[in-house]
Design a protein that fits this description.
It is globular and about 60 Å long. The chain has a single domain, classed as Lipocalin. The chain has strands at 21-27, 30-35, 41-46, 51-56, 59-65, 73-77, 88-95, 101-108, 111-117. The strands form two sheets. The chain has a five-stranded antiparallel β-sheet with strand order 1-2-3-4-5, with no helix packed on it. A four-stranded antiparallel β-sheet has the order 6-7-8-9, with no helix packed on it. The protein is mainly β. The mean pLDDT is 88.
């Protein structure tokens, strides 16, 4: 018989949410995420060295110089080699006043494929 007052078993730590995405690596202004749907690819965001860049399987899809400001929203098109429809993608980052990342969201064709609250 099970004790109804027993604590539930621990839940494995999960930083990001997405049915078809897996966080591979994270850091300040850095994310590497394996996507399984709507396409099979590795999403890579790097905001180091005053240059923000977004890659899908080593295809550069967006970049900005961030000397004075960090761009919190990026809109891009998926490369034709990975997505024949060239669907639109969007990445959003929300920061606290102390530049601590509070949320990281990735959308493809308007659908949230990865969402990471802090």
């Amino acid at each position: 018989m099970t004790n109804p007052y027993q604590s539930p078993p621990p839940i494995a730590e999960q930083r990001g949410y997405g049915d078809h995405a897996q966080l591979l690596r994270r850091g300040f202004l850095y994310r590497r995420i394996q996507l399984h749907a709507p396409l099979e690819a590795v999403f890579h965001y790097n905001g180091w060295n005053f240059l923000q860049r977004i890659f899908f399987d080593d295809h550069l899809v967006w970049w900005r110089i961030s000397w004075l400001t960090i761009h919190r929203r990026a809109v891009f098109r998926l490369p034709r080699e990975l997505d024949p429809e060239e669907r639109a993608g969007e990445m959003e980052i929300h920061f606290s006043a102390g530049l601590r990342m509070q949320r990281f969201t990735l959308r493809i064709a308007g659908e949230v494929v990865y969402d990471e609250p802090a």
